[in-house]
Each structure stands twice: as C-alpha cells, then as structure tokens.
Amino acid sequence: MKKWLLTAAIAAAFGAQADEGMWQPHQLPALAKTLKAKGLEIDPESISKLTEFPMNAVISLGGCTASFVSPKGLVVTNHHCAYGSIQYNSTAEKNLLADGFLAKSFDEELPAAPGSRVYVTESVTNVTAQINEGLDSLKGDAFYKGVEAKEKALVAECEKEDGYRCNVYSFHGGLEYYLIKQMEIRDVRLVHNPAGSVGKYGGDIDNWMWPRHTGDYSFYRAYVGKDGKPADFSKDNVPYEPKSFLKVSAKGLKDGDFVMVTGYPGRTNRYRTASEVENQFTWNYPASRELREQIIDIIKTSAPEGSDARIKYESTLASLANYAKNFASMIEFYGKSTMLEDRKAREAELANWIKADAKRQAKYGQTLADLERLVTEGNKTQELDLILGYMSYSTPMSTAARLYRLAHEKQLPDMEREPGFQDRDMTRFTAGLERIDRRYDASVDKVVLFEMLKRYAALPADKRRGDIDAFFGIGKKFDEKKLKKQLDKMYDKTEIGNKDVRMAWMDKSVDDFKASKDPFIQLAVATFDTSMAREKAQKELGGELMKVRPAYMEAIIAYNNELGKPVYADANSSLRVTYGNVKGYSPKDGLYAVPFTRLEGITQKDTGVDPFDAPKKQLELIEAKQYGDFYVKDIDSVPVNFLSTVDTTGGNSGSPTLNGRAELVGLLFDGVYESIIGDWNYDDNINRSIHVDSRYMLWVMKYLDNADNLLAEMEIVE
Known about the structure:
The protein has 718 residues and is of the alpha+beta class.
C-alpha cells in the first residue's frame, strides 16, 4: 500500500470523530491541533518519541500495562494485574490476597511470580518491505512460513544485544509490519498491594459495572544488575533507574478535563466482516461463556473457600469470571444493536465503491469473496477447536503436550523451530513450568478435565478426533464411569505435578517420551501426529488469510479516506495512545451516571460480607470524614473512581491515565458494561473507561496502609 494513502487517511480521521481510536505513537504529530484544543499542555511531538518523557515511563508487563513512578524503578499497575504474583506469594496461613502486603524496605520486597517481566519499549521500526520481499509468489502454508522466517530473522538480529526482547507485529491485517524492541527486566518484585477488600472491592458483582469503588492498584519494583543491565533475580541486584518517571497528581481531575491513556491494548475487531461478527456473537461468545461458567462452578465446588486449593485457583477464577461477564455483555448488547446490519451495509457500500472504478475492480474485485470463503472454511472445525481450547485448563494434559512438542522442536535448528520453542523462549517456558506449583491441584483439575471430555464426547463422531476417541475409549456409547476410573488412574500415576520431574522432561528425547509410562505423557504421544496435521492445515488457511486480509484492509482504508472517516489499526498488544475527557454517560433512558464516585459510596455498598467487606479501619475513616489533603469540594469527599471517553480494551489494564501535563491522575482498570462491545464497535455515547483516581490511591496508602515509605519515594504534585 502506498504510504501516502494511510497518512492521508489518518489525517482525515483526526478531524472526523471525537475520541475513537487507539493510535500508534508515530501517528500523533498529525493530531497536535486536536490534542492541544482538548487540553494537552506538553509538546505533542514528545508523545511520538518512545525514548522521551512521558512515553519512556510507560511499560508493559506482558498482558497488562504499568508505569514507573519513582527514580528507583517503582512500578504502579492494577491490583488485578499483580494478582498472580500476590496469589503466588500467598498461603492459607499468610494470605496476601486477603490481608494486603507492604514492604517497608527494599529487602522486604517479594519475588514476583516466575516469569514476571517489565518490558521497556525502546524502538519501533517499520519492517514491511523486509517482510514482504520475495514472498509475492508464495501461497498458503508456504507464505505463512515465509513470513514467519522473515520475522524470526529480524527478531534474532534485534536480540543479539543481551537483555532485549523483540517481536514483529502486524498492523491492518498484515498490511504493515513493525519490529518492536523492548528491554526485558527479569527481576521483578512485589512491593505493595492493598487488602483484597480494597483492591477487589465489589468483586465479580461490580466487575464492568458503574458506580464502582475499587482500589485497583498495586506496586512492583524492577531490579537490574549492578551494571544497570537486566539480570536474573539476585540479592545483589539494584533497583532499575528509568530514564524518566511519572509524577503523581494529588490535585487530580474534574468533570470535563482532558485525559490521555498510553498502554498496550490487547485485541479489537472493528474491521471484521459481517459473517465474522455474526458467528462470534451468535455462536462463539455464547458457547465460550457457558464453558467458562461451568469451569468456575467446578473450581468453586471442588476447592472450598480459604483452602490452599482455592488460593491456587483464585487467579484462574478471576480471569474466567471476568471474561464470562464480558461475553454476557457482548451477547446482550449485540442483540440490542444494529451492528450486524451496519456491517452488512458497510460491506455493500465498499463493494459498490470497488465496482464503480475499473482500477479498483481489478485490484480488489475478488477480495471480499475470497475473504468470505476463507472465513467460512475456518469455521468448519470451531466446535472441536473450542472444546480443545478449554481442555487446556487441564494442567497435566497441556503441560505434557507442550513438553513433548519441545522434544520434537529441539531436533531442529533453532531458527526452524516453532515460535515459543526457540532458545529465546526457554526462560518463559521454564517459568511457566515453575508457576504450576502454586496454580494446580490434582483433585480440581481432574473434575475439570472430566467435564470437558464429556462435552467433547457429545460432539458428532465426524467432528471428534480419532486419536482422542481411541485413548479415552469414546465411541457411539459414552461410559462416564469408565472414563472416571481411567482419569483416577491417570492422576494417581502421573508425576507431572512434581516440579523436579516435569522440569527434567525439558531435556528428554522423543524416544524417552515414547517409552514413558506416565499416562499424560502417553496421551501427548498418542495425540501428537494429529495435532501437528491440524496445525499444518490451520497454517495453510492462515497463509491464505495473510494474503487476503491486507488487501481487504487496503480497500477499507482507501474507501474511508474518501469519506474522511477514522482509520487506525486494530489493537494488537503494541503501544498505543488514546485520548478523551472525564465524562459521565446515560446507560438507559431516565438515568445519568455521574463521572466520579466518592468514599461514601463504599459505606453505602458495604455489607460486611465479601465482596462488599471494606476494612473496618477504612469504614471508620470514612465515617469520621478523614479526607486529609485529598478532599474535593465539588463532590464533598475523596474521589474513588472516575469515567472517561478514552478508547481502550483488555491489555490497557494498569495503563497510566495522564492529565495535560502528563502527570499520573489515575490508572485505567475497566470499562462500563455497556461499552464491552466496544472491542467490535465504538459508540461515543456509551463507550466509557473506568479509572481508579490517584487521590484515592494516595488516600488509602496514607491513612489506611501507612505506606509512608512509598509516598516519600514518589514525586507527588498538587
């Protein structure tokens, strides 16, 4: 695609629609007038430069966003983003999830969960030409592998310098590719988290809801070797000194104020076809929600609250519940919306625009039909794909499969291995195996696998896999008792739950696996060939899609450019910037949600029973109107959470919310129920993000948790 076309489309978009769009930093200079008019006080050019303030203070945790807030590597993110590390360090006797944690000195800080990382983005390079060179004639699996080989080569060159993690990201369905280089800080430690009755106040009931009163924040610290370079955990390591850090505002915001969020949003789907939309909302989301809710019930029934088994699964439960509610909202608001009709109309308009010009017809004429054909082909195995995906919640089953795959991949030269199994991935691979100790209970896992296999057995025979049928004895008649006995034996005999044993399997050969008597290893061996054949077929289809999707996006961009409509890439976990204002909304006729909640809302909700069981001391402070320096006259209290119009999604959790001076005024942690569908369609009237207010964070730290050492370390501005 001609570079001028995308640039023109971006420029047109900036003046076209309010706060929609997750923009790549290099696009922002074209937005200068809009940002200044809305309230940005710093130079807009600085936002596009990753090595300058404030962008170099924003970091990724690999799934969540965070930011540096002190010159000594202090990192602030969401409580739910640090949840895995809090859970990892918790036991039934010392439950940091319930009671909170504060390190009063560096030597009291706790190692985060194995594999925890802080990623500091240092450069983003357009590598589209390098990726595409020499691949025009390739198709299907050959094209897929061709792109993959180019990406591996670029990554390998980028990672020659120790301490860096590099990845190639595709934008606009593969129309553009960017190489992103990040410093990978490997020694991450837990510094402070509030009690769960603050950090997760409202729990799953309030998740995605407004009004909200959740103190969703926690602190890590990044450590490096004495030479300032990334290093594995060591008592000799020192706090990382970032090039810049964010000042924390005690003044905060008021209704209508400008806000900007920088972070790493996960995935959006705003350019998917009508048929993709219909399938996702009428089949995939309902089926996925049901499976998640079933696994939640299994875990809660099998692991009593407060038990060590329940603590091991708290992080899993939180993730399952979050997305179960997410899917419920998706389904509900899709049913009320005209999204499908709108997509069909958009595609019809695009098709008419293509047909109206001979050159466009020659270039894009077959694109829509090809894309539709490939999407339909991919949906043929979706029932099986979904069940197998949820079957991976079985730790011994998924772990044995990954270990056996590793044994096969190690037979190949490193550059020919599947991504995820190269030498560069072994630290993460190892950390994943280590984390199992605090996230697995055999009795719970067995019930989950049994229920997933029951679901699998209910599929028509032509949609099942012969290898799985044979291993578990699934035929025309399904014998539940026989399967239960088989699983009892498998879990009794397997040693995957033993850390030393499973770590040792990383160095075993394919022949060692084939000779093993461990039943889950035997399952991995028995199902490997079919899994590889399925993967090859998926790559064949994926390669075809990688040819068609960019052409489809190029047509959309060219068409929208003529209409002056926004054109920005769907979120893909790379660094983005979004902007907006503090603003309430009307969730339904006759109701208006104000943009701030107050301390008093906590007492109004409190029942003394989880998840509305605020700490007694907090309730006493609120009753005594102990507002301190964080009182806001306009609301006659301390603000807890606030709403804004910024365009965000999952992965943005923990993103710093900045005011016009790039001071931290809050952390983004959620969206309202009505805006969950925003992953597919942005609506300026109801798309609202939820943030924890910096003034509430500071209030809890000062008056409830006595985190004076951290308050002194941060630069707090009025």
